[in-house]
Amino acid sequence: MAPPRPPPNPAGEQQPQLHGVVIITLPPADQPSKGKTVTAFAYTNDPPPPRSPPDPVMGYPAATEARRRPRRALSTRRVATAALVLGALAVAAYYCFYSDVAVQFLGMEQEEEQRNETRSFLLPLYPKARQGRALREFGDVKLAARRVDDGGRKARNRMEVAKAATARTNSTALLPIKGNVFPDGQYYTSIFIGNPPRPYFLDVDTGSDLTWIQCDAPCTNFAKGPHPLYKPAKEKIVPPRDLLCQELQGNQNYCETCKQCDYEIEYADQSSSMGVLARDDMHMIATNGGREKLDFVFGCAYDQQGQLLSSPAKTDGILGLSSAAISFPSQLASHGIIANVFGHCITREQGGGGYMFLGDDYVPRWGVTWTSIRSGPDNLYHTQAHHVKYGDQQLRRPEQAGSTVQVIFDSGSSYTYLPNEIYENLVAAIKYASPGFVQDTSDRTLPLCWKADFPVRYLEDVKQFFEPLNLHFGKKWLFMSKTFTISPEDYLIISDKGNVCLGLLNGTEINHGSTIIVGDVSLRGKLVVYDNQRKQIGWADSDCTKPQSQKGFPFFL
């Protein structure tokens, strides 16, 4: 006998449904330290249960069948809803406790409490045209070294300079960038100095302490730049007793009887700049229309040697962006205009360009890989890589696997330089994996150029034959590697002859045989952040076309 059918639902009655809800509560804007809460629960629209039967008569219990309720089987809808709730909790937990930047999010909000408001500025990077010359003749390397003998000591006036910072509003400057690796070889932006303000094109250089521009002075020895020479008034010359002069020169070079602060800088490519320090107004315009005027100290250059002299002068000087107290971002921070954080984003597009920001408004709140900056006497952005791999192949000897290799991020270098052993192993690995490419010694674009056995016009034609170069900077949360990936399009150049040229060079050519110098060719397609407050450097993939202010909580974006 077949079992009886269940009774039909009354008219209009709906089947019970299960609903899942996730509630995330953010702290008040004026009290971010209270933290946030994540709550999840489920409910149904079941009708209320029937009333309990009346109490038993004469103390006898009610029938067992009346007290038992049938157990409801798990339905597909219930399982799916539960999975949805658990998934939402997992995503919330990831952003709250796992992401590098999200972990710091509350701390950032607490720091922002101390500011009255935040404004933003933008600066462009412009192209520097160079024509008719091989890249190897003008590939700049702007790792600066002061030509002064301070016995290894530097004037430690950073704390005193920092005390000069007032309680002014922190802002963020955003500057467009122009330029490209090939054929220009450099990137630059513009700043405005003097009264009335005049524009100057400066090479963006994280490997230099001092910002300097060409000056109208006796013994001038350089090619004329795109703008009229800066002519300082006598009262604009910085005296030797100035704290920034002592920071630049070192205590042992202090001259009490001198009337000016002299400087001389030599770069890794053997070029140099010589002059005196000057002080004048620098003008900046915020993205919200606000204006800032900074009492800015910079180099007034009257003599240049090497590539600074011989190359076509499409810029007026260097924009120093190192961690030194006299650098451009450090001076802005010491005056309370910005947080001591800046970054740049250089596009891979053929036309080049990108942008640079000063301050922390444009630092992404998530998705950035961070590694620590090592302090050093040269104020450069040093880090340490644990492994260097071409694809999956280790480029260092097995006995060196436990050691580290020093890495410097230098936007003043056109190309990336590798230690001799890593470079030779890389070239051998490329030749073994790509036998169809034959070296063309007649192509002088770069030290190593290959001719393919098929026509080559674009990187897309050949990049599939090459592997990425990976720099590993240890682990993140015990199992995720902090990796800076240099893809083939970030180290290959197509020459005018249609050859494939390697933009990774041997560091022994510039006397850096044991250090990796990451230059412009490998910085493209990435947002790179230099955080001098937290002593860390970070990067994230980006097309570098449109800067975006980062102020929201990532879970909702």
Automatic annotation (TrEMBL):
Keywords from the named record: Aspartyl protease, Hydrolase, Membrane, Protease, Transmembrane, Transmembrane helix
Keyword Membrane: yes
Family matches, as Gene3D superfamilies: Acid Proteases
Region (Disordered): 27-59
Active site location: 205, 410
GO BP: any one term: proteolysis
GO function term, MF aspect, one: aspartic-type endopeptidase activity
Transmembrane segments: 77-95
Peptidase A1 domain mapped to chain residues: 187-540
Record-linked InterPro entries: Aspartic_peptidase_A1, Aspartic_peptidase_AS, Nucellin, PEPTIDASE_A1, Peptidase_aspartic_dom_sf, TAXi_C, TAXi_N
PROSITE patterns linked: ASP_PROTEASE (PS00141), PEPTIDASE_A1 (PS51767)
Protein's UniProt keywords contain tRNA-binding: no
Bias (Pro residues): 46-56
Family assignment from sequence similarity: Belongs to the peptidase A1 family.
Protein's name in the database: Peptidase A1 domain-containing protein
Originating species: Zea mays (Maize)
